[in-house]
Structure formats: structure tokens, C-alpha cells
Specification:
InterPro entries: Acyl_CoA_acyltransferase, GNAT_dom. GO terms for molecular function: acyltransferase activity. Its EC number is 2.3.1.-. It is a single chain. The protein is of the alpha+beta class and about 150 residues long. It has three helices and seven strands, in the order βαβββαβαββ. The chain has a seven-stranded mixed sheet, with helices on both faces. Helix 2 links the parallel strand 4 and strand 5. The longest helix has 18 residues. It is globular, with a radius of gyration of 15 Å.
Length: about 150
Amino acid sequence: MISKTFVQLTQDEIYAIAKLRQDVFIVEQNSIYQDLDGLDQSAIHYLLKQPQDQELLLGYGRVRAIESTKQIKIERIVLLKQARGKGFGKMMLQQMLADINQSYAEFNIVLSSQTYACEFYRQLGFVEYGEPYDDGGIEHISMLYTKS
């Protein structure tokens, strides 16, 4: 897995990221929402590529630091359909958390989980807070990382 700032991404990587997010979040999950939200430019992007085919993007996630609230937001975690259930999501999150803890130890780490995926995030040290809410027609809940 590699991490890059927006300006370090190649045109092909930007296209692959947008396509994967669109294929899963909009088409597969039938959720009409504004995926290109103007926040990619300030994020660190994590790309999980197929070892034998570096053009194939298996997974993706982004991380943004919100200095004013001392929060790190993990966002847009997504896996290609055929990559699910093989431990890639856990591997991605563990790497992201390790990087965040190294660079932003004093920040709270938060994410917004689709409610069906809460158990996955709980196993990695996240706990729910607040009430569930609708985001693009899919129920989500905020989660906070509690392990160091």
C-alpha cells in the first residue's frame, strides 16, 4: 500500500480512485451523492494496488487533518468487490492508523461508518458516538478511535 498527497497522484491514479469510488459508492450502493467534494486536494490518499498488476486498484482510503478541531478524519474506505473478505480492509486501516499515530499522536481519529460495517471498525478499536444519520440514502454513524 502506498500513500500520496493529491499532487503526487498520477492522472491514472486519480482516474482509478474516482472510478472505484463511483463504482462502489454510487452504482453498487445505489447512493446518489457528491463524491467529488473538493476535499481530495487536502487529503493523504492510500492506494492498495494488485502486486502483479500495479494498474489495478484493489482498495482506497483518504485521511484529512482538521487542525481547528484536532481531528483526523478517515474517509472513503472502499475495496474492489473481488478484494473483499480477504483481509485487505483490515490491513489498510492498520497502516492508516499507524501512520496517523506517528504523525498526529495528539489528534482524535474519527470516521463515519455505514452502520452495517460498525463491527469491522469496532475490531480495530473504534466506538460509535452520536446518533445514526442518513448520508446519501445510507445509514451512517460517527466513530472514534480509542486504542493507541
